Structures are given as C-alpha cells and as structure tokens.
Amino acid sequence: MCAVNSEGLTSKSTTAEPSRQNRRSFLGALLAVGSAVVGALLSVPLVRFALFPLIRQTTDTKKSPVGSVSEFASLAEPAMRTIQIEQIDGWRKTVSEKAVYITKDRRDQLCVLSSICPHLGCTVPWNKEKKQFICPCHGGTFSVDGSRVSGPSQRGMDTLETSVEDGKLLVRFEYFRQLVSDKEVVG
Ligand code: FES
C-alpha cells in the first residue's frame, strides 16, 4: 500500500514540473516583449528630442520690416537700413543686426541688397561721390543695383527676398556662399 502511494506520488511530481517550467518561461518571454514595447514607445519622444536640431531647418529666419514702401518711392540712391534678424540654429535662437540696402533694380523696381561682400564677407558701403558700392577690403566695386563692376568678387551683391505687407517692405535676410559666381544660400 505504502509502495503504491509512493510510486503514484513520484509519477505525478515528474509530469507537473515541465509544465510549471513552461509556464514560467512563457511569462518571462511575455514580460520581455512587454518591456521591449514599452521601452520602444518611451524612446520615441527622446529620439525626436535628440534629433530635433538636425531635423529642423537650421536657418529659419523670419522676414524683417525695413520701412514703408512710400518712404522709398523717390529713392535717389541706395538707403541703408539695419534690420534685426532672428535665427534658429538647432536649439539656439539668436537675434542679430544686419545692414541692408534698399535700392532700385534696372526696371526701376525696389530691391534689397545684402551688405555682405560676396567675395570674402566684408561690409560694403555706398560711396556717394563715386556712386558705387566700394568694398574696403579688396576694392570690389558694384553699381547702384548691386551688379558687379570690378574687383575680385565673382558675382554682384546679393539680392534678398522681399514682400510687401500693409504698405511695409519686408525682407528675409540670408547668407550666401562666398567666392563663387552663383548665388547659393548657406544659412
Ligand atoms: S571682401 Fe569685398 S572685395 Fe574682398
């Protein structure tokens, strides 16, 4: 009697053990998958946060007002204005001032020129006597509409994108590659 009970117990214990182990390993796998899914979901905002400065356009500049259009209607020579530009570089926002010239193109239309020399980046002043823009660094000269006249620059002064809103002239300041003949935005 005693031996039969003992055998019975022994055989019951050997069949229950593998099924308990299977259950444990299944729960372990489920927990691992759950943790991986939760981890992946939580990492999405972190990855977006880390990559944001790379994804975002680094040179997102707003248009700046330069004055009312009527103010420049009877422009006899280029008028210099200092504008404030707000630049976003990754997480950093900077506000700086830049000089621009409001002048007229060959069709007598208002246009705005960057004061940065396309040769090596010096600020180009308007010379009233010579009626030309003359760069103080290497003597590059440009006509009233910014076209290249002489000197080492491979192109004329850079025109900036403009628009008119409520009678105000707005300009989007941009930086262009120097030492090249074609205008190419770099920031
Ligand atoms: S920087 Fe203007 S001519 Fe060289």
Secondary structure layout plus pairing:
Elements: H1 2-55, E1 64-68, E2 79-89, E3 92-104, E4 110-114, E5 126-127, E6 132-134, E7 141-142, E8 148-150, E9 159-165, E10 168-172
The chain binds FE2/S2 (inorganic) cluster.
Briefly say what this structure is.
The chain has 2 domains: 1-55; 64-172, Rieske [2Fe-2S] iron-sulphur domain (Rieske Iron-sulfur Protein), CATH 2.102.10. It has 1 helix and 10 strands; from the N terminus they run αββββββββββ. The protein has one helix at 2-55; strands spanning 64-68, 79-89, 92-104, 110-114, 126-127, 132-134, 141-142, 148-150, 159-165, 168-172.
Question: What does the model show?
Answer:
It is a single chain. The protein is an alpha+beta fold. The protein has two domains: 1-55; 64-172, Rieske [2Fe-2S] iron-sulphur domain (Rieske Iron-sulfur Protein). The protein is built from one helix and ten strands; from the N terminus they run αββββββββββ. The chain has one helix at residues 2-55; strands spanning 64-68, 79-89, 92-104, 110-114, 126-127, 132-134, 141-142, 148-150, 159-165, 168-172. The strands form two sheets. The protein has a six-stranded antiparallel beta sheet, with no helix packed on it. The N and C termini lie far apart (94 Å). Mean pLDDT is 84; it is low at 6-11. Residues 117, 119-120, 122, 135, 137-138, 140, 151-153 line the site of FE2/S2 (inorganic) cluster.
